[in-house]
Structures are given as C-alpha cells and as structure tokens.
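User: Just a sanity check before I run the rest of the batch. Below are the structure tokens for the first item. I only need the designed sequence back.
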C-alpha cells in the first residue's frame, strides 16, 4: 500500500472536516487532498518519476506537507531537510541522495546557489513560485507500493558522514497503525503541533498520525510556551507532542501564567526524542495533573516502545513496552542476550525497521544481525514489571573508566537532583590513568552559588567513587540540536578548550 493513497482515502472520508489550521487559515481534508494532487501534477510536469529523490528544505509551513505527500503519491522519494543546514551540508545531502529536484525558498537558494551550481541535472522549485493549478487535479497514480522507499531521512549523526535512512511506505504505515492503537488516536482528536516537520517526530509521528486518524492539527511554526498553554485550553486540544526541552519550558511558563490553563479536553501529553528526567515527569504532573507519556523511537525505526495509555501504568525514566509488531532484545557486545535486567545494546526487529542506509551497503550490513537492527542505545528491561524498558544512554557515550562502565545518564540524574543545577551533561575524556575520566558540564540555576568541589562532594555521597565526575565545568548553556538532544561531541570540543 502507498502511504499517500491511504491518506487520500482518509481525506475522502472526512472531506469537510478541518485537517490543518496554520497561520490563521484552515484547510479541510478536501482542500488538503486537492493541494496534494495539484502539487503532484506539478512535480509530474517537471518530470519527477517513481524512485526520484526530491529534497525539501522549507521552514515549517503547510506547503511542506503538500510537497511531501505529493512526492509520495507519485512514487517518488521525499527527503526532508533541516532548514538550518548550511550550504556544504546541503551539497552533501543532494549529492549523496542523487536528488533530481530541490524544493526550497528564494532566500535559502541565494545562500546555496554557488555551492550547488555544479549539480547540472538538479532542478529547483521555489516555495514562492505560483504553481499552476488545475481545477480538478487528480494525477496521483500511487506507483510506489509498500516495499518501495518513501523517504530518506538523514540521521543527526554526531561523527562521520550523515547516513540517509531509507524508509519504506510499509514501515511508515505499520508504525503509524501501531501508534494509533497504543495511543487510541481517533478522529475526535485535536493535535497541537509545535515540532519541526523535517524530523520523524514532527512528520511521521505527529503530522502523519493526525492526517491518518482524520483528526485536526493546529500547527504553529515556532514553539512558544505561553501560546501552547493558551491554545491547549482555548481550542479544546486533546493531544500534544514534545521533546524534554519543550516540556521544561512549559513547566517554567506555567508558574508565570496569570490564570492557569484549564485543560478540559486534553487527554495525552507525549514526549520523546531525548530522555525526560524524573524531575520533569513529576513536576509536570504536579502542576497539570497529567502524567507525560514517554515513548522511544529513532529515525531508522520510527517508534519502538511507548508507555501505557492508562496514566497509572506510566513510569518516570521508562520508555515503556514494545509497540505492536515491534520486538526488542538486549544484547552484549558479542550479540548474545544479556542476563535478565542487565544493561546491553537495544536491538529492534519489526515492520517499522527501515530498509537500510542509502548508498551504504556496508554500513547497513554492519547495523543488522538477522534483521535485528542495532540501535546503539543502551538499556535494560525490568523483569518485575513485565519487561518494561529503560534506556541508559548511547553505546558510544558509555564511559569506561578504570575498567568500570559508567552510564552518563545515571550521573546526570544525580547532578540534576541538586537544587543548584539546571542542566548537566556527562562525558568521558581521555585519561592516562583511567583510560577515560568522568567529566561533567553544568548549567547552573540563576542566583545559586556553588563550587565544582561542592557538587563533586554531593555526587560522592550518592554514587560509587568511580562514577563521580573528576572535574566539573560550569557553562552558560548545554548545546542541544533542534530536537533538544544534547550534542556531546560539541560539548567535548568546548570542554577540551577549557582544559
Ligand atoms: P533520532 O534518530 O534523531 O530520532 O534520534 C534517535 C535517538 O534518540 C534514539 O536512538 C535515542 O538515543 C534517543 N531517544 C529517542 N527517544 C528517547 C527517549 N524517550 N528517551 C531517551 N532517548 C531517546
């Protein structure tokens, strides 16, 4: 099945219902479908065919969605790109994917034009261009089927070349259906959408989920905490999706509200893409009465695990249980299952798992064992709670000091339980004695004075000595990417200059 066909079928069913509200304008499902057909007709006119790659680098806007589903509907492959990418990065993505068409804005094009002029085959389409409209545009032929690639999503990759995860129509459909079942998503839902569209969280979970359900999506270009609190209450929203940074800012904003939002219709706050701390989980519950539902996913696999729809079965720091059709194993370095409750690498198998890295057969082969995808995440399952999954960090971020394993997240949790600490990030730095030493970067809360030594003493009272930071650096801000993930590679560079 072609994903765009499925969405078009929903559109036919809910034709008069608002599908998307953005920048003061509403598109019904009929409008949405007509736009997709129209964009598809224009792509066809430009000669885009099944299997061609179309890179889309746009700010968050409704046209992004028209392009995306139009690309899928004619069997081409959509390549969403972060609007912040710099010219050299754009050149890499366009070249690596062999894109035939680059959809962007005129101001972005002016920055990248000289860098891409050698790509003589590349066509360019600007968002500002008035696309010829056909009254009854019906072109989509849905020439790509379930096993065909629908999207290439470049992973945020912290080292080496970014890898393009090739995701099939079937991967997306299977994952979306699993989420609908797990979160009881229905046409009665109203989603407040504040996430970027170039990332799987905003696109394949939030936007796709809403369009598939026949629900309504209120989309904002930027996340602004006050606007979120006001809109959730005034527009009777039922669903919200965010990353931990967003929830932290919502918590901070709540205290400043003159009248606290009454969330009468709200049923689900979902969080993922980065670890939510237990402080954030409990603080949010204390102020709003809602338990955030944390889920775990990644570009290559879509969503893997989720906490339960029943609030009582949600737990802080846990990402819950495998979604329908997803299998999870925890393995040691040799790929053998670890003993029960031990930490190991999370491996995933299921209809959600991508088809491989675009143009990188060796990388793909390295990342799989018998269809099990090696996530690079470390985690464990709790046998006393139905094998509930907990993540403890990325395998690459594991610190081995004097032969002992240190999971940065455990140390970060302790540091963040101190009243002076706003945020922390723990990394391993080379050390002649220990191989690696534990080092922490800390952003302090304003107006609280504390020394690094005091914080180290605090850690020592709560952690085994080998886990405690040997050095602590105070920083004004912990570097994060657009999805709120801490960029430890950048942090290591920053700290190295301070040593
Ligand atoms: P991305 O491919 O950019 O979506 O990043 C995927 C990675 O984000 C995963 O491999 C995890 O390391 C991390 N991640 C996603 N969801 C969670 C979560 N709920 N808790 C902790 N880490 C998460």
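Assistant: Here's the designed sequence for the first item:
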């Amino acid at each position: 099945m072609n994903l765009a066909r499925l969405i078009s079928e929903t559109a036919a069913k809910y034709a008069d219902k608002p599908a998307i509200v953005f920048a003061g304008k509403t598109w019904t499902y009929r409008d949405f479908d007509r736009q997709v057909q129209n964009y598809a007709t224009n792509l066809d006119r430009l000669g885009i065919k099944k299997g061609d790659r179309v890179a889309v680098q746009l700010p968050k806007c409704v046209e992004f969605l028209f392009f995306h589903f139009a690309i899928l509907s004619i069997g081409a492959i959509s390549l969403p790109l972060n609007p912040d990418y710099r010219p050299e990065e754009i050149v890499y993505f366009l070249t690596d994917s062999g894109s035939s068409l680059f959809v962007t804005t005129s101001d972005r094009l002016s920055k990248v034009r000289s860098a891409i002029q050698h790509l003589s085959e590349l066509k360019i389409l600007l968002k500002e261009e008035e696309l010829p409209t056909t009254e009854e545009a019906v072109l989509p032929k849905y020439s790509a089927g379930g096993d065909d690639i629908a999207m290439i999503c470049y992973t945020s990759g912290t080292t080496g070349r970014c890898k393009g995860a090739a995701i099939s129509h079937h991967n997306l459909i299977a994952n979306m259906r699993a989420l609908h079942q797990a979160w009881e998503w229905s046409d009665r839902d109203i989603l407040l959408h504040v996430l970027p569209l170039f990332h799987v969280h905003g696109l394949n979970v939030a936007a796709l989920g809403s369009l598939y359900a026949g629900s309504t999506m209120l989309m904002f270009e930027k996340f602004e905490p006050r606007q979120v609190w006001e809109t959730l209450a005034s527009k009777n929203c039922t669903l919200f999706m965010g990353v931990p940074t967003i929830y932290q800012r919502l918590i901070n904003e709540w205290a400043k509200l003159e009248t606290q939002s009454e969330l009468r219709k709200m049923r689900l706050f979902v969080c993922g893409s980065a670890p939510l701390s237990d402080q954030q989980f409990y603080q949010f519950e204390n102020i709003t009465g809602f338990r955030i539902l944390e889920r775990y996913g990644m570009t290559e696999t879509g969503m893997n695990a989720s906490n339960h729809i029943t609030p009582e079965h949600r737990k802080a720091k846990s990402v819950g249980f495998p979604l329908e059709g997803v299998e999870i194993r925890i393995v040691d370095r040799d790929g053998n299952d670890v003993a029960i409750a031990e930490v190991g690498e999370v491996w995933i198998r299921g209809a959600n798992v991508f088809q491989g890295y675009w143009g990188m057969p060796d990388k793909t082969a390295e990342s799989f064992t018998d269809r099990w995808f090696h996530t690079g995440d470390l985690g464990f399952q709790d046998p006393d709670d139905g094998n509930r999954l907990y993540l403890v960090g990325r395998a690459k971020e594991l610190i081995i000091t004097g032969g002992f394993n240190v999971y940065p997240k455990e140390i970060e949790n302790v540091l963040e339980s101190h009243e002076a600490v706003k945020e922390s990030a723990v990394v391993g730095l080379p050390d002649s004695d220990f191989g690696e030493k534990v080092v922490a970067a800390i952003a302090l809360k304003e107006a609280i004075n504390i020394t690094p030594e005091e914080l180290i003493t605090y850690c020592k009272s709560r952690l085994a000595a080998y886990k405690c930071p040997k050095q602590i650096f105070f920083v004004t801000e912990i570097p994060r990417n657009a999805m709120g993930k801490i960029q430890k590679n950048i942090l290591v560079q920053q700290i190295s200059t301070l040593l």
